[in-house]
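Whiteboard transcription, Tuesday session. T.W. wrote the structure tokens on the left side:
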């Protein structure tokens, strides 16, 4: 049995299916670059047939990423598989992941198909997919509630048809570790030619068992785990990449395998995904939570100071926690700025965008003096958006907030080629700013989420604001960063409006 555990990241597909986690193509590209830097083996870039936007995002990732395999999901029908195949064509290595449901309840109530028809459709799907690539993965949706004899039968058939990876999803998060491990062991024992394919698992977290089930499956012989950064995903989410990776790395003695992941990229990936989706990471979350390496009790602190391993099983720096590193200041020049961006793997499209970003960096350095990597990430995230997303722009702002007075906001916005002013009062300055924007934009959107995070430490830190807006079934997240959190809030609101204006065609496709 191989001692390499393949990490298949589905943050951009299953993760994006969480209501409110929709991402633009540029945001997906930024995450894909970070996943490549982290040395993820397979990136499931999306579900190409879901919409033109999804297709273009998978294609753009396939064109850009060279080190990871790029995968698109497809239902077991010819059209979905053709769209997936076309989208991954530019990839250095492309995979099609096709699936059909196999549990009695799904076959009868959802598909309205007989088991024989399901097997036949699955075999056809593998044939369609193989016209585009030899790297075909098959998933038996709701395998966790499927009959073992039927799973053996369908897996035998798809392996004969040429599937190279067999995925066993616990779609509804119903399984428990011992039983799930038994299922995997039985499949590997009973399915003919089981040793010619990679056995994969994909666990949802409805009972909080996604990571435990995935790890139990690894002990039983699975050699691919499907997971997401921060455990993002449908409902309670998927198995969290960072927990799976660090469990097998830290307890190699138990699992007998390891991943290729560069673990120092885990925390940057977590922050990037959290910033883009607006889904915060709970402070006590394993590996990536702000308190994951913080020792509060005096006894623990004393122990760690005497000998780190008394209370620590991993080193914070090995998963990418660094004390905020001072990287640039107000005297840093354009070359230092450009080379730090390169070191961070941030690609700025054109020289014009770089110049614009540098001007903004100088303005920030004047206000903040010390610029950290996190500040640079936030600063350039606007620069990588295409100009057509900038229908609404904040030109100037004035806020008034005084004890006993009603807070006021006055804004000047560029809307298309026009300049417009609006003033409003509100329950606080942020509320007043949003009302002023709405006077001009008249968007009719519903505010679903407003959250503020300090990007670094200290009272001079930039605030990073996420605003989630919904309109006509579309949900978008807007981000804005500034040392003034009211300005950051206005920028985030405008960023979300720009995404809606650009007809960002994402409707959280649920499969
Ligand atoms: O949860 C699930 O069953 C899935 C499949 C499409 C793999 O996401
Ligand atoms: Zn899933």
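and on the right, the sequence the group agreed on:
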């Amino acid at each position: 049995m191989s001692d390499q555990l393949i990490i298949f990241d589905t943050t951009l597909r299953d993760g994006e299916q969480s209501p409110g986690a929709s991402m633009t193509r540029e945001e997906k590209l930024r995450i894909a670059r970070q996943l490549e830097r982290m040395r993820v083996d397979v990136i499931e870039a999306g579900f190409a047939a879901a919409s033109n936007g999804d297709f273009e995002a998978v294609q753009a990732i396939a064109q850009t990423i060279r080190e990871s395999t790029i995968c698109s999901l497809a239902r077991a029908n010819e059209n979905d598989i053709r769209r997936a195949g076309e989208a991954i064509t530019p990839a250095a290595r492309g995979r099609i992941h096709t699936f059909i449901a196999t549990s009695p309840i799904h076959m009868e109530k959802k598909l309205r198909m007989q088991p024989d028809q399901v097997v036949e459709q699955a075999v056809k799907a593998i044939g369609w997919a193989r016209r585009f690539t030899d790297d075909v993965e098959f998933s038996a949706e709701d395998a966790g509630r499927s009959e073992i004899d039927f799973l053996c039968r369908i897996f035998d058939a798809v392996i004969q048809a040429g599937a190279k990876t067999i995925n066993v999803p616990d779609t509804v998060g119903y399984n428990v570790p011992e039983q799930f491990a038994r299922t995997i062991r039985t499949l590997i024992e009973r399915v003919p030619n089981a040793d010619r394919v990679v056995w994969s698992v994909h666990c949802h977290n409805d009972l909080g068992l996604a990571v435990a089930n995935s790890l139990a499956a690894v002990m039983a012989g699975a050699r691919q785990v499907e997971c997401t950064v921060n455990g993002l995903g449908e409902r309670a989410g998927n198995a969290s990449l960072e927990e799976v990776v660090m469990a097998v790395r830290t307890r190699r003695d138990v699992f007998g395998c390891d991943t290729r992941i560069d673990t120092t990229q885990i925390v940057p990936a977590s922050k990037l995904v959290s910033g883009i989706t607006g889904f915060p990471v709970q402070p006590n979350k394993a590996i990536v939570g702000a308190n994951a390496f913080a020792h509060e009790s005096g006894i623990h602190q004393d122990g760690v100071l005497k000998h780190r391993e008394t209370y620590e099983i991993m080193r914070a720096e090995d998963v990418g926690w660094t004390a905020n590193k001072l990287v640039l200041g107000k005297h840093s020049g354009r070359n230092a700025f450009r080379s730090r961006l390169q070191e961070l793997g941030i690609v700025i499209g054109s020289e014009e965008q770089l110049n614009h970003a540098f001007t903004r960096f100088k303005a920030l350095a004047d206000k903040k003096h010390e610029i950290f990597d996190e500040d640079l990430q936030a600063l350039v995230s606007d620069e990588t958006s295409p100009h057509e997303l900038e229908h609404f722009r904040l030109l100037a702002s004035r806020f008034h907030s005084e004890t006993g007075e009603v807070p006021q906001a006055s804004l000047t916005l560029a809307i298309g080629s026009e300049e417009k002013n609006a003033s409003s009062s509100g329950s606080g300055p942020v509320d007043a700013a949003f009302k002023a924007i709405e006077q001009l934009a008249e968007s009719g959107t519903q505010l679903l989420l407003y959250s503020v995070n300090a990007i670094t430490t200290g009272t001079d830190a930039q605030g990073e604001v996420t605003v989630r807006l919904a309109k006509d079934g579309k949900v978008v997240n807007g981000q804005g960063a500034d040392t003034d959190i009211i300005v950051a809030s206005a920028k985030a609101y405008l960023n979300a409006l720009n995404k809606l204006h650009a007809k960002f065609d994402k409707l959280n496709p649920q499969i």
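Someone added at the bottom: The domain at 388-502 is CATH 3.30.160.270 (Double Stranded RNA Binding Domain).
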